[in-house]
Amino acid sequence: MNPAFSQKNKLGIFDGHGDVGKDVKPGSAVFNPKTQEYELSGSGYNIWADHDEFHFLWKKMKGDFIVYTRARFIGKGVDPHRKVGWMVRKNLEGTSAHVNAVVHGDGLTSLQFRKTAGAQTEEIKAKLTHAVVIQLERKGNTYTMRVAKFGEPFVTEEIADLDLGDEVYVGLFLGSHNKDVIEKGVYSDVRISVPAPASLVPYRQYLGSSIELLDVASGKREIIHTSPKSLQAPNWTLDGKSLIYNSEGLIYNFDIAKRTPAVLNTGSVKNNNNDHVLSFDGKMLGLSSGVKELGGSIIWTVPLAGGEPKQITPKGPSYLHGWSPDGKTLVFTGSRDNEYDIYSVPAGGGPEVRLTSAKGLDDGAEYSPDGKHIYFNSNRTGVMQLWRMKADGSEQEPVLNTGEYHDWFPHISPDGKWIVFISFLKEEVKADDHPFYKHVYLRLMPVTGGTPKVIAYVYGGQGTINTPSWSPDSKKIAFISNSGELPVMEAGGK
Are both 124 and 230 inside the same structural domain? Predict the structure, then answer.
């Protein structure tokens, strides 16, 4: 084993780092825990032909995985073919079989691979250049590269039947394409996720969760809490100090500064799901909690300080999504006569009013901050799309009807300027479903209309942003990403 790859070089989420190849000018790797960024420096003639020279920051893994980062070079650089990206190698020898998702200094973006030790490297060029977002996924012996300029959807390339063995080295790399030159790069929002196995039983088995905060202007992400349990649907409290989320039927108040969760007292109501919402004044919490004898999910309200909740809807399924700015009305998705529509109900209890009647699923209803409109999602056209209507249910119209994706859960920023929502891929999800553990985008668009921008590329789905998730200053989004347990292995080997 090369001593440069010992466990003493463990860094952040990675097991080790070092130079690959012979007589390579020494590179380095640094992790900044405050920014959660990695900085690599490296040299080497190239990553090409029958052997490689570069600096590698790696984690030893088995099974399937998804790795993600936003990468950029530091400085103008010397050679236009310097390289940053993700790599998977069979071993740490310079001639190892491998696959990498790479962006070159001149913008060339490609999926490169060497099928066997010492073989010639092959390449599939992406249809875009100058990618910033780099994702590489392994599913068996199939490797999928997803790349994008930040804000745009992924462009995908794939290589199948590439056998690197079950146990591999996965990591970030940097090569200068010049053996006498050291180049540098920065890797932000680095994520390693273990996806759900095909055997996972939805709604019975779950992956672990991370609570992330997303800066809307920059797209910068920060993980503030990770759990092996399923955490779902964070609401931001009005004072900006806490997040409210559900897990295993309970509601939690997460102190952002202390990074600690505490169970919120909801009395005897302990089968809570991910459809919960705070009142605009921040004093009350609306819950959706399953009661089998009443037909499923029932809506309740409780003071944010905790207590015994008050039952609002007499029967289920009833899934709460919105509270009117004046505090007087709740809007929810109800199944009545086997049809899911949007209903309103007085916040103190009373008769339901049906607001939608189109065939199909209407869901995710939420008031605009001025109380004039209700935004929701509907698959009445055959594709799940964003809609809005006046608060009385009149003038129902599509907000975004391009139909590229299945769009769910429009959340309006507190300043009333923006809509954030989650988009599922049509090839993965049906129009009436929003399952766990899929490739999803969080997208942003002005309330006045326009082209949506991708602000987060996430492995998640159900529970990611089911509920209003804006910070009170309209600058950040809280959301959930998911991963199975990352393997813990001894570093080493060849």
Answer: no
The total domain count for the chain is 2
Contact 65, 166 (CB under 8 A): no
Structure tokens at 151: 């804000």
- pLDDT tens digit sequence for 218-236: 999 999 999 999 999 999 9
Name which of 181, 243, 186, 231 is nearest 206 in CA terms. Answer: 231
Residue 191: in which H helix or E strand, if any? strand 183-193
Residue 170: which pLDDT band, with cuts at 50, 70 and 90?
A: very high
What mean pLDDT is reported for the chain? Answer: 96
User: DSSP assignment, residue 84?
Assistant: E
How does pLDDT run across 196-217, given as a tens digit for each residue?
A: 999 999 999 999 999 999 999 9
Among 424, 412, 423, 433, CA closest to 477: 412
Residue range(s) defining the domain that contains residue 38: 3-193
Which residues is 453 bridged to in the sheet? Answer: 444
In this structure, the strands spanning 168-175 and 109-114 are unpaired
Instruction: In whole angstroms, give the CA distance from residue 471 to residue 392.
Output: 27
Closest CA to 375 of 359, 361, 358, 363: 363
Indicate whether 166 and 215 sit together in one domain: no
Dig out the tokens for 41 from the structure: 């420096």
Q: Which residue has the tokens 């910070």?
A: 471
Question: Residue 19 in contact with residue 45, Cβ under 8 Å?
Answer: no
As given in the structure block, the two tokens for residue 349 are 């209890």
What would the two tokens of residue 386 be?
């964003």
Give the three-class secondary structure for 242: strand
The answer to whether residue 331 is domain-embedded is yes
Of the candidates 167, 113, 6, 45, the one whose C-alpha atom is nearest the C-alpha of residue 492 is: 6
User: Between β-strands 418-424 and 406-412, what pairing exists: parallel, antiparallel or unpaired?
Assistant: antiparallel
One-letter identity of residue 42: G
| Residue 168, C-beta contacts closer than 8 angstroms, at least 6 positions apart | 60, 61, 62, 88, 89, 90, 138
Buried residues in 111-137 as b, exposed as e (16+ CB within 10 A): bbbbbeeeeebeeeebeeeebbbbbbb
**Tally of CB atoms within 10 A around 106:** 12
For residues 293 and 360, membership in a common domain is answered with yes
The sign of the dihedral angle between the CA atoms of 412, 415, 417, 423 is negative
pLDDT digit string, tens, across residues 115-165 = 999 999 999 999 999 999 999 999 999 999 999 999 999 999 999 999 999
